[in-house]
Amino acid sequence: MKFFISIMFTALLFFTVNAQPPKGIGKNDPEAKKILDAVSTRFKTFKSVQSNFSLKIENGLNKILGNKTGIVYMKGSKYRIKVSGQDIFSDGTNIWTVDAAAKEITLTKIDPSSNSITPQKLFTNFYDKDFLYKLNSDTKGIQEIELTPIDKSKMFHKVVVFINKAAKTITSTKIFEKAGNRYTYTISRMNTSSNIPDETFVFSQKKYPGMELVDLR
Question: Tens digit of pLDDT for each residue in 122-157?
Fold first, then answer.
C-alpha cells in the first residue's frame, strides 16, 4: 500500500462524512450544491465505470515532483485500481493490495461503519457534510467549485473540483496542502457504457506467485 494508497487515498481521507457543518462558520453556495448534486445523481445511474486517470504532484514553486497514471474499474460496490507496480482489488467486503516492488499482498477488511473511502464515493456526494463550497466560475463548459474543509486540522486547506457542465461529470480535482504541495487528479477517459465482467474484481493469489499475503483483517 505504497504510492497510490499513501498518496491518493491518504490525501483524500477528508472525503469521510462525519457531521453537518456547525452553525456560525459560513454558508454553502446553493448553486454549487445544485451542480454537485447533479454530478452525484448522474454517477449513481452508471451500472459500471472504467476510467483512466493521472496524478501530478507539484510543490509550491510549481516544480513537478511526480507523475502517475492508471485505470480504475467500478461496478456496484466493487472496484479495481491498476497503476504501475500496484494492483488493488475490492469485492465490496475486502481489499487486496498487490505491491510488486515489495512482493507483498496486503488483505484488509472494509468497515461499513468507518465511512472508509472508495473510488465510488469520490464521484458521488463526498462533499455533503465536511465542506463549505462555492462556485468559482462557469465558463467554456467547465464549472469550477472550491471546497474548504470545516475541520481546520486537516493537512490541506482547499480542494478545487472541475466539472464538465454538459456531461455532469468530474474531470479533475486539485488538492492544496498547507505545506504547499498540490495534487492534481485528472480523468482522461471515462467509459460508462461497457459491462465490466465480474471476474475483473476477483483476486486470485495464483496470479502472483512468490508474493507473501499479509492478512490484516
Answer: 666 666 677 899 999 999 999 999 999 888 887 889
CA distance 16 to 128: 10
Report the CATH number at residue 66. Answer: 2.50.20.10
Q: From CA 123, how far away is CA 209, in angstroms rounded?
A: 34
Distance, CA of 173 to CA of 182 (rounded, Å): 10
Mapping DSSP onto H, E and C, the string for 127-193 reads CCCCEEEEEEEEECCEEEEEEEECCCCCCEEEEEEEEECCCCEEEEEEEEECCCCEEEEEEEEEECC
- Burial of 77 per CB tally in 10 Å (0-12, 13-18, 19+): middle
Range of the domain at 10: 3-215
- At 174, list the grid cell: 486539485
Give 157-215 pLDDT, tens digit per residue: 998 999 999 999 989 989 898 999 998 989 888 898 888 999 999 999 999 999 999 99
